[in-house]
Write a structure and sequence with these properties.
The protein contains six helices and ten strands, in the order E-H-E-E-E-H-E-E-E-H-E-H-E-H-E-H. The protein has 234 residues and is of the alpha/beta class. It has a single domain, classed as Nucleoside phosphorylase domain (Rossmann fold), CATH 3.40.50.
């Protein structure tokens, strides 16, 4: 079974429209849609916004269902030279809002004790995603995504993580939590994020409000094609 997680309803609408939903399950306050998409068994979850919600949702899926791999999708804020309307495929994810260096100077900024600083996406999934992007002629970039519980409008906030992470392309609020939880259950994952706004743009919030629905839909169409084409073997 393929699991698809997104934070907001607008990020899932196009995906749900492409499904034949056989069952809707609520565990805690997480709504799970179970059914078929392009002849593949899928479970789609609306996590809610933020790292806690994302971690809870991923854990629920991993504990209660036989998950082959997880797709975390939705929108993100881009960092120059990324443009609104592009898609970022994450080769790895990290935090931008974690700092325990004062009590453990051996750790990196962005690292929680006992956990990895960077969590890498599954290489086979990333490689296949690249082939689909090329075939669909999407504008995409491959790099690092960082997560934190903030909507970032000033890149100065990200300077500490940018000092130690090359090729940081986007930030959002869930994917590192999905990645950490998935990795603890030994479930492969991939992160696919459409860029709805660019940090430091003077019209960033307005652009986000005007474009988020379209970018979420565009990204969802890629996810649907990915599910249709991919033949998974562990």
């Amino acid at each position: 079974m393929i699991a698809i997680i997104a934070a907001m309803e607008k990020e899932l609408k196009t995906i749900l429209d492409a499904m034949d939903i056989s069952e809707i399950v609520t565990i805690s306050d997480k709504i799970l849609y179970i059914g078929m998409m392009k002849n593949k068994e899928v479970i789609v979850a609306k996590s809610g916004i933020g790292k806690v919600n994302a971690a809870i949702t991923t854990t629920i899926l991993c504990l209660n269902y036989e998950i082959d791999f997880i797709i975390n999708t939705g929108v993100a804020g881009g960092l120059f030279p990324v443009n609104t309307g592009e898609i970022v495929l994450s080769e790895a994810v990290t935090y931008f809002d974690v700092n325990v260096i004062n009590i453990d100077p051996e750790l990196s900024f962005g690292q929680i004790p006992g956990d990895s600083f960077l969590v890498k996406a599954d290489e086979k999934l990333v490689s296949f995603a690249k082939s689909i992007f090329d075939d669909m002629k999407f504008d995409y970039r491959i790099g690092i995504i960082a997560s934190g519980d903030q909507f970032i409008t000033d890149s100065q906030t990200l300077k500490p993580i940018q000092k130690i992470v090359e090729n940081l392309l986007a930030v959002e609020m869930e994917s590192m939590a999905v990645a950490v939880a998935a990795s603890k259950f030994n479930i492969p994952f991939i992160i696919i994020r459409g860029i709805s706004d660019v940090i430091d743009d003077t019209l960033q919030v307005q652009i986000y409000e005007n474009s988020v629905d379209d970018i979420a839909g565009m990204t969802a169409h890629f996810v649907i094609r990915f599910v249709e084409e991919y033949h998974w073997t562990r």
